[in-house]
Batch of 2 targets.
Target 1
Amino acid sequence: MTASFPAIRMRRGRTEPWMRSMLAEHRLHPSDFILPLFVCAGQGCEEPIAALQGVSRWTVDRIGAQAKAAAALGIPCVALFPNTPAGLRSERAEEALNPDNLICQAVRAVKDACPDIGVLTDVALDPYTAHGHDGLVDERGRVLNDETTAVLVSQALVQAEAGADIVAPSDMMDGRVAAIRAALEGAGKIDTAIMAYAAKYASAFYGPFRDAVGSRGLLKGDKRGYQMDPANAGEALREVALDIAEGADMVMVKPGLPYLDIVAAVRREFRLPVFAYQVSGEYAMIEHAAAAGAAERDALILETLLAFKRAGATGILTYHAVDAARLIGA
Ligand SMILES: NCc1[nH]cc(CCC(=O)O)c1CC(=O)O
Ligand SMILES: [Mg+2]
């Protein structure tokens, strides 16, 4: 015997706020969020990013206060990205290895201002190369895998030395997680974690980010020779499996909302923390839709972030982290 209507009425569970609250399968918490922060050169400056209305670049002396504000809201971690001055970008991205570059200064500033917040740094060369690619390129403009990995290893070590808690290779070179893990172990950085951008797609949603780090105008060609084809899902599971085997502590799927199927599949297949990056173009889509009166901003923010939790994400990198933490707290 199976019950059916009218004995079964699904709406009974939706009658009152307390009932809906009691039956909710997922909920958002400030500890779900990682806040990306952009760093720029100079002093005493906040530079608004036109392509990311509401997001700014901060000079090193101001970045600590941003992290502190995030920590006060219960956000456990910030992700730092530099806008390297044009004169310091080069063919071979030497500035990425400068122990006093913007990112290393910012890591130290955040740790000084707010020792209790986690600091994640991006391992990839695009904020430092004159051609805007994530790695070293050959004469035909193709990104070289093994040569790039050697530089990424040094970059990760420099960031870990500066105090980064998590290094996050976002370059999509093969074999870089193993190489970085081995180097960290060799340097005694046994507690520096690796969050691998394991399934990172060649996406049109990164446009505003490239403005934020100043690489958009520089990029020659596209990144489809190393980032994944949006047509592929099974390949994402293979990428994740490889990064786990190489020693990743946690993995990431990127972009976010259009790739929730991948987040859910990774959650089903593997037993390690999986993060999703709600990227710059997704942020812009929400902001533009709200500004055009198409939908309510706060509702869009909370609904999209909750969707990541429902899909199985452990946490979400989002430019809305501060807004969302405030909305949840309210
Ligand atoms: N390796 C660079 C990197 N790290 C994070 C993002 C995108 C983040 C965003 O769009 O918010 C990118 C851009 C890219 O791959 O071109
Ligand atoms: Mg890979």
Note: The chain has a mean pLDDT of 97.
Target 2
Amino acid sequence: MDTSGLDKIPVINLSQDDATIVNELMTAFTIIGFATLVNHGVPQTLRQQTFSASELFFQLPLSQKLQYQYIDQASNRGYIRCGSEHHDDYLDEGKLAETDCKETMDIGWDSEEGYENRWPKELPDTTFKNVLLEYFETMDKLQLRLMKYVAMGLGLAPDYLVQRCNGHHENLRLLHYPSTNASGVRGNAHTDFGTLTLLVQDQVGGLKVQRTDGTWINVEPTENSIIVNVGDMLMRWSNDKLKATLHKVEAPPHHGGDIVPERYSIAFFCNANKDVELKCLDTCCNGNVTAKYPPINAHKYITQRLLETINTTPADSKEDSVPTNNKLISEVGNSPNNGTSTISDIICRVCHKQQAKYTCPRCERPYCSLDCYRNHNNSTDDGSNEISCTEEFYKTKVNALLSLERKEHELESNGILNRHYQQQFQGIDIATEDNDIAAEILAEEELYRLWSKLEELGEDANRAQLEKVIPPSLRKKLQYDLQQGTAQQLVLRDWFPWWRQQLVVGSKGTTKSKMEKVKRSEPEKSSKTLDERLLKLQRFELLSLGRQPSPLLVFNLMDILYSVCGTLRLYHGIANAIANEPLEAGSTLVTASAVLAKDARFSSLSEVLIHCTSAGKGHEGGAASWNVLVEDVAYLVESHRLVGRALLEAFDILTAARREVKRQEDVVDKRQRHQEQIKQLSALRKKIEFFLSWSQHPEIKTMLKETKIKDEILSWREQWMKENEPQKPISPSFEDVL
Ligand SMILES: O=C(O)CCC(=O)C(=O)O
Ligand SMILES: [Fe+2]
């Protein structure tokens, strides 16, 4: 329906009779997806107390707020600093993505098992935690009341949606938009993800809702009203009958001076229960109306949307870094050196800090350094937001090239498949054939030039075309480079060990090594479904014939984790390991763990750690030295979720390796050997499964949390390093990359 004539969003009085409310609400939701609620029953004092709580929190120094930082999208709780959220889907044509100019604090249902709200110790419960919990409950009641009306309006039983939205799968978000010297966007245009959002705003204003003709309606602040809007989840559920409308926050035009004041708002995002399958409601797809969206699990949907939006690792490793959005004047309570930097067109459009020196040949985005070049993503011209530049693209190209090379080599070498692709290049004697060229590693600029040539070819380039673009001499160089790992590092997406991400987030006073500078972490598939997968694990008692879990197993677990960390580092994460080198990754994983490879048993901390100091051999050419990996293990073992994730990734690597062996079985006549490998891999998977279910046993969870195992490992490591010659990393080049 055309809303170009609409100049304000409808106001609905909730003290009317139900039938009238249903009618008005449905009209508002089907036309514009927004309404202003009055007489809603939420006490004015509670609203004021909640705003005061929010102010108290955001006025804390940044260093303190960062102690309560958002950890991950599955938990969806904690503080997110300015510049961490982006909404690239709805950019105006030709506009570059900018992060939102707001900081937020997210609070979930306080009694949810496995997730904890990050209550700031600096603020008394009476003025913060208790107030927010009361607000949470009050808003929950209001949303359930509204869901009843929505169900009635959609022709469903009144409690149909209530029953599916009463699981406290909600998220109370405090928002603070710091003062700014620039007019323009403070929060980019977006639709909300959930069912309904209940929003209250202070008197500064700036919220705008899009009309069908692309213009915007101002949502003026009014005392004591609540704005409600439809989110994508409800839009999908209702098959687009109810509209999730684009909205954004802009700095108001002027406020008597150059500086636009800070703004506070409070959003209560409501979602369907975690286990709800979101599929078109029966009353919304009948007759000749078909469902527009495929069914999806509610929790998965939200987590996925959050992953696309929130970057949990912006400049967080550096407390005092300038926020990525250039418009900030100051973050309240922050040091004055968080000041403005006026942007000109030649400021790097990736980090927004340095002067831009180069322009991406593909998207013409100015950037300052190789790092920024690697990190820049850009929406395509048609706004479809595919990652069209950088590593994804190059990776596809190089993979295409590699697979051609592979095929050829396989034929030449009589179908030998079970080999690392780097080994395949040994068939070509680079050093003797073309010594001069091969000896030097392909310069980065040269690689980029090559990439852009490849790009011109398009996705379906055939071998002849590739050969034309990549002359034989250059191919040798590229192969050599791949062999050396240099090109691989260029083509692989930056990967940062996810367990270290938590380290940067959490622990104050930890010595920060070079590795801990945060890079973009891998939003891995497995992490999205981590909790679902952990919950599905067989109970430990069932696997171990009713025996109680032995706490001594933790030493064997450490040996496995040591190997998992080394493998993931070496292969730049699970996604890459599985997609490109499942067999090699599987074999690294197994050989570097004495428990997996030799069924070894460790019975004390020092026994396993001494083993680790020498187990680097298992990671020949590996990604990090033993002391880094031992530190990795220390950070993993204190959380059953992190242990669970690491083991699940080990499990996935073994599964992928097994799949690869099976695939080869079809091609190569080596059935018996392959059958044995498959058996071994299956047995190893079982072993990992055993450790998985052990690590999620309630007693073990508590043990991991409460014992000082992390500290013991770290102090053992310090001591060992003092007493023994500090060992050099096995492969410093990988460390440098990290
Ligand atoms: O701050 C506001 O007024 C709007 C916030 C918003 O739209 C959101 O967080 O989804
Ligand atoms: Fe929103």
Note: The chain has 31 helices and 16 strands.
